[in-house]
UniProtKB/TrEMBL annotation:
<feature type="binding site">
    <location>
        <begin position="138"/>
        <end position="141"/>
    </location>
    <ligand>
        <name>GTP 1</name>
    </ligand>
</feature>
<dbReference type="Pfam" id="PF01926">
    <property type="entry name" value="MMR_HSR1"/>
</dbReference>
<comment type="function">
    <text>GTPase that plays an essential role in the late steps of ribosome biogenesis.</text>
</comment>
<dbReference type="InterPro" id="IPR006073">
    <property type="entry name" value="GTP-bd"/>
</dbReference>
<keyword id="KW-0677">Repeat</keyword>
<dbReference type="InterPro" id="IPR003593">
    <property type="entry name" value="AAA+_ATPase"/>
</dbReference>
<feature type="domain" description="EngA-type G">
    <location>
        <begin position="198"/>
        <end position="371"/>
    </location>
</feature>
<dbReference type="InterPro" id="IPR032859">
    <property type="entry name" value="KH_dom-like"/>
</dbReference>
<feature type="domain" description="EngA-type G">
    <location>
        <begin position="23"/>
        <end position="186"/>
    </location>
</feature>
<feature type="binding site">
    <location>
        <begin position="76"/>
        <end position="80"/>
    </location>
    <ligand>
        <name>GTP 1</name>
    </ligand>
</feature>
<protein>
    <recommendedName>
        <fullName>GTPase Der</fullName>
    </recommendedName>
</protein>
<comment type="similarity">
    <text>Belongs to the TRAFAC class TrmE-Era-EngA-EngB-Septin-like GTPase superfamily. EngA (Der) GTPase family.</text>
</comment>
<dbReference type="Pfam" id="PF14714">
    <property type="entry name" value="KH_dom-like"/>
</dbReference>
<feature type="binding site">
    <location>
        <begin position="29"/>
        <end position="36"/>
    </location>
    <ligand>
        <name>GTP 1</name>
    </ligand>
</feature>
<keyword id="KW-0342">GTP-binding</keyword>
<feature type="binding site">
    <location>
        <begin position="251"/>
        <end position="255"/>
    </location>
    <ligand>
        <name>GTP 2</name>
    </ligand>
</feature>
<feature type="region of interest" description="Disordered">
    <location>
        <begin position="1"/>
        <end position="21"/>
    </location>
</feature>
Length: 454
């Protein structure tokens, strides 16, 4: 145990920390009906989610939205592009995907064009799913076009909501309809009460060995499968006993299920990673040690850091490495994973079981760092010493100082520094490094913000 106060799951702040993940609203429709414009409208910003370059998969696909105080996640399926098998098939696949992961589907039709055969095919899929659907009649820029919207009653999935995603007309009413369709908000305690075992997301690009590790970990004691209460999605988790305790591995159904290698697979993987992270406390990012570090590995690590979850890095397929590669890898890791040097690392073989038992201590370390709270008195002593020994460089005749600091939160640790001026990037990195040296925080991102008093 650390000497510092550590908040645990059933600690005093558990209720507000353990809020259930927000429901998911997926936006579906043919290309050019205005899905991205609508998503921008919902997010209340002008910045372009809209891609100029067709054929480019958007990096981010899920966004946090808020309407009338209700939080939800909007998924822009427009980022998932039709492949060679043709538009109709691609849109159908997109609809299935949306239905799979969403609580509510917003189906966007261009009212000025009317319902096409492809739209009809999508309606079939949506109707069979039983998921609530909000029909959006887009490009109704003025009253004259309202009649076009009414024509869409013919699709047989309820009331068309006339809207101009571009100008905002009707978007408030539309969002009210979306809120009505969302599942009832679960009471905040539900999730906390369900959250006894620590929640682990097993992440990594395809073929790094996620399923193999899962099988290795589950072993004989395999698989108490259960679905999470309080959501209408049924992500299937597994409870696995490790080191004498139960751990909840998030969305193991998604890991075990095999997806076709197509353009959508990448998109789907990103989405799944994001939604697994939402529900997890700690992520194990699996990396194939027998191959060079890939862009996608780094991206997944960055996603974990951005999500504020604890992180363990597991180098898998260690059995395939020769001495030279092991040696090389150490240097490669330090260079390429420099933004996650603080993460505990384990070198394992999911195939042979080598050092798989080291995962639990690494998870414990990461979760401990994630939940560590430094008492204000200790923190300010630390800053007094730090500022005295290593003052901020003088800039333009001024020398910003840290007056006072407080830890505003845990999971991950968040610090607020009250300063007399802007602390430059290098100095903030120095502060982070020193905080880590002094107080641990292994396996957790830490968040530092400044309040400047001029
Ligand atoms: P997506 O492919 O479904 O994501 O469609 P986009 O959001 O990229 O929009 C396609 C085109 O339709 C763009 O040129 C938009 O400016 C335009 N558009 C989107 N919404 C509206 C609208 O409400 N009214 C009008 N007139 N044009 C719109
Ligand atoms: P996933 O796509 O991340 O779930 O990866 P899988 O668990 O399906 O593994 C992909 C391939 O890598 C399979 O052929 C596994 O047998 C192999 N594999 C997984 N872990 C190891 C390991 O530790 N050593 C070796 N040599 N092969 C492994």
């Amino acid at each position: 145990m650390s000497e510092y106060e550590i908040e645990t799951v059933d600690g005093p702040q558990a209720a507000d920390r353990e809020a259930a993940p927000p429901p998911v609203v997926a936006v579906v429709g043919r290309p050019n009906v205005g899905k991205s414009t609508l998503v921008n409208r919902i997010l209340g910003r002008r910045e372009a989610v809209v891609e100029d370059v067709p054929g480019v998969t958007r990096d981010r696909v899920a966004y946090e939205a808020n309407w009338s105080g209700r939080r939800f996640t909007v998924v822009d399926t427009g980022g998932w592009l039709p492949d060679a098998s043709g538009l109709a098939a691609a849109i159908a696949e997109q609809a299935r995907l949306a239905v799979d992961l969403a609580d509510v589907v917003m189906f966007v039709v261009d009212a000025t064009v009317g319902a096409t055969d492809v739209d009809e095919a999508v309606v079939d899929i949506l109707r069979r799913s039983g998921k609530p659907v909000v029909l959006v009649a887009n490009k109704v820029d003025d009253a004259a076009t309202e009649a076009d919207a009414a024509m869409l009653w013919s699709l047989g999935i309820g009331e068309p909501h006339p809207v101009s995603a571009l100008h905002g007309r009707g978007s408030g009413d539309l969002l009210d309809a979306v809120l009505d369709a969302l599942p009832a908000e679960p009471p905040p305690e539900t999730f906390a009460a369900a959250g006894g075992p620590r929640r682990v997301a097993l992440l990594g690009r395809p073929n790094v060995g996620k399923s193999s590790l899962l099988n290795q970990l589950a072993g004989e004691k395999r698989a108490v499968v259960d679905s999470v209460a309080g959501t209408t999605r049924d992500p299937v988790d597994e409870l696995i006993e490790l080191g004498g305790r139960e751990w909840r591995f998030i969305d193991t159904a998604g890991i075990r299920r095999r997806y076709r290698e197509n353009q959508g697979a990448d998109f789907y993987a990103t989405l799944r990673t994001q939604s697994a992270l939402e529900r997890a406390e700690v992520a194990v990012v699996l990396i194939d040690a027998s191959e060079p570090l890939a862009e996608q590995d780094l991206r997944i690590v960055s996603m974990v850091i951005e999500s504020g979850r604890a992180l363990v890095i597991a180098y898998n397929k260690w059995d395939l490495l020769d001495e030279e590669r092991r040696h090389y890898l150490e240097r490669e890791i330090d260079r390429q994973l420099h933004n996650a040097r603080w993460a505990p690392r384990v070198n394992i073989s999911a195939r042979t079981g080598r050092h798989v038992d080291r995962l639990v201590p690494a998870l414990d370390t990461a979760l401990e760092g994630w939940g560590t709270r430094v008492p204000t008195s200790k923190l300010n002593q630390f800053f007094a010493d730090l500022v005295a020994a290593h003052p901020h460089p003088i800039r333009g005749g001024k020398q910003p100082r840290v007056l006072f600091a407080t830890q505003a939160g845990v999971r991950p640790p968040k610090f607020v520094l009250f300063t007399t001026g802007f602390l430059e990037e290098g100095y903030r990195r120095f502060i982070e490094r020193r905080l880590r040296e002094e107080f641990g925080f292994a396996g957790t991102p830490i968040d530092i913000t400044m309040r400047i008093r001029e």
